[in-house]
Amino acid sequence: MNIRAMKSINCFFLVSFLFIQSTTLAQAPPAPYGALPSERQVKWHETEAYGLVHFTPTTFENKEWGYGDADPSIFNPIEFDADKIVSALKAGGLKGMILVAKHHDGFALWPTKTSAYNISKSPFRDGKGDMVKEFEQACRKAGLKFGVYCSPWDRNNPVYGSFEYVLAYRAQLTELYTNYGELFMSWHDGANGGDGFYGGARTTKTIDRSTYYGWDTTWAITRKLQPMANIFSDIGWDVRWVGNESGFAGETSWATFTPEPAKGFNTAIPGNLNHEINPFGTRNGNNWVPAECDVPLRPGWFWHPEQKGQGKSSSQLFELYLKSVGRGAALDLGIAPDTRGLLDPEDVASLEGFGKLVSNSFKDNLAKLAKIKASNVRGTSFALKNLMDDDRNTYWATSDGVTTPQIMMSWKDEQEFDLIRLREYIQLGQRIESLEVDAMIDGAWKKVGEATSVGACRIIPLGETIKTNQVRIRITSSPVAITLSELGVYKRASL
Ligand code: FUL
Ligand code: CA
After folding, report:
1. Contact of 485 with 394, CB cutoff 8 Å
2. What is the pLDDT of residue 190?
3. Which homologous superfamily does the CATH classification assign to the domain defined by 366-490?
4. Is the peptide bond before 237 cis (omega within 30 degrees of 0)?
5. pTM of the model
C-alpha cells in the first residue's frame, strides 16, 4: 500500500471516529444538575393527589383533638365500609390514601400489642376488627397507594414523655410497616406534647421535640422496613410541609430545599419549621424535598355535624389542585368519615365533581394535534415527540449550552385553551428557572403566560381562554440544557 492510500485510509478512520464520537456525544443525555430525587420521591411525584383519612373516637366526640380519655365503646361505626370510602377517593382522582392509624388521642385503629387503647376494645367488628387492614385492602383493590400517619404525640399513653414511650412508638411503626404491604408514605405530624389524659394523670407533658423522638433512629426503621415510603414531616425528610393547611404552594416552588439553621434542630435534616420558606423551597437547595399541601375537604380534619354545607366545592378543589399539584407539590386532601363510618354524601359529590374536572380538563392534549418545532434538539433520542407521549421517562433535551430555546406549535385551525402543563425530567434535576408563553393574536405575538419553577409538574393557568393557531414557549432562563418530559395544552372543563 502506498503512502497516499494509507493516508486516505487513516483519514477515513479519523473522520468516522470523529463522526461516531460527535453523534454519541450529541445523543448522550445531559449531565444531571443539582440535588436529585430518589426513586421513591420520583414515584411520589407521580401520585400527585391523595387523601388523608381521619376517623377515631374523636369523630364520635365531635372534636378535632381527642384528649385521650374517650371510652373505646363510643367507637361504633355500624355502617363502616372501607370500599365505599375508597371508591369516593378514587372518583376524586386521588391516587393514594393515608390513614391516620393513630391520632393524638392515642387510639390505635389496629389491634396493636403496644397499647391497650386500641380497636379491640371497641364494639367495631365485636372487638375483632382491624380498620388499618380494611382500608389497606380496599386501597389495593381499587388500585390506590396506601400510607399511614401514626401520631408521635399520644395523649392517652401513661408513659408519654419517657424513653419507654419512644420504644412503644417505634414498635407501633414496626407493626404498621410489617403487616400492611408496601406503603408509599409514612406521615408524621408536628403537634407534639401538651395536656392530655396520660393514663388518668390529666396533666401537661412537655418534651424537647428536637431530641425526644430520636428521629434518626426512628426513621432508620422506616428505611429498613419500608424503603419506598416517603417520610413526611415538618422537619424533613423526603417531603416537606408546605407551611400552611390551606392547600397551596408558592407561585414559585422549588423541589429543592436547604434548611435554615433553626435552634435546637438537627440541621442535617433537610427541612425545618420556617413557614416563610416552606411554600417556596430553595433554588439550588442542598436536598430534593418537595412540598406537600395538606388541606381538609371540610373545615375540620374530623367530621363535625355543624360543618354541613361548609365543605369545599369541586371547583374550589380544582383551584387548589392548580396551586398545589400545578406548582410541583402534592395535594393531600383531608377526608373525614362521619359517625356512620361513611362519607357525607356532599363530600362524595364534591370529590366526584373534582375528579371529573381534573380528568376532563387534562384529557385532550391539543399539543398532540399541533405541528411542533423547536429551536434546538439534542438528537433523535431526545426528539420533540417525547413531549407528547404521556411518558414522564422520555424527554426532549437541548444541546449543552442551549439554555433559552423556544418551542413553536401551530395548528391549521384556531384552537381554544387556557392551561399549559409542563413537566421536567426530574431525574436530571430541577433545571428551568423561568419561561414565557406567547400566542399569536391579531398577527402579533402576545405574552399570555409565564412561570418560574417547573419541576415534576407546572400548570400555567392563562387567565382567559386563548384563541389562536400559533403558540410558542420561550424558556428564558436555565443554568444548563433543558430536559422537558411532557408538554400539554388544554381547555379547562366545567361541570
Ligand atoms: C396536624 C394535627 O394536629 C391535626 O389534627 C391533623 O391531624 C393534621 C393533618 O396534622 O398536625
Ligand atoms: Ca415524555
Report:
1. yes
2. 77
3. Galactose-binding domain-like (2.60.120.260)
4. yes
5. 0.93
Task: Please tell me the predicted confidence (pLDDT) of residue 25.
Answer: 52
Q: Alpha-carbon distance 79 to 200, whole Å?
A: 32
Task: Take atom 10 of ligand 1 and give the residue whose Cα is closest.
Answer: 189
Q: Which protein residues touch ligand 1 with a CB less than 6 Å away?
A: 64-65, 189-191, 294, 301
Listed as ranges, residues in the chain with pLDDT below 70 are 1-26, 235-236, 260-274
Partners of 410 in the β-ladder: 371, 470
Q: Quick check: 361 and 355 in contact, CB under 8 A?
A: no
Ligand 1 atom nearest to CA at 100: 7
In this predicted structure, what is the pLDDT of residue 134? 99
Q: Which grid cell is 121?
A: 376494645
Task: Report which bound ligand comes closest to the CA of 105.
Answer: 1
For ligand 1, atom 1, which residue shows the shortest CA distance?
189
Nearest to 230 by CA among 222, 241, 218: 222
Nearest-atom number in ligand 1 for the CA of 149 is 7
Q: For residue 70, give Cα distances in angstroms to 78, 122, 233, 339.
A: 18, 11, 27, 15
Q: What pLDDT, on a 0 to 100 scale, did the predictor assign at position 2?
A: 52
Domain over 39-361 is classified CATH 3.20.20.80: yes
Cell of 281: 423551597
Place of cell 400510607: 147
pLDDT in tens, 193-241: 899 999 999 999 999 887 899 999 999 999 999 999 999 987 668 999 9
If you measure from the C-alpha of residue 189 to the centroid of ligand 1, how many angstroms do you get, rounded to a whole number?
6
Distance separating alpha carbons of residues 433 and 450, to the nearest angstrom: 11
- Domain coordinates in residue numbering, the chain: 39-361, 366-490
Query: Using an 8 Å Cβ cutoff, are 324 and 360 in contact?
Result: no
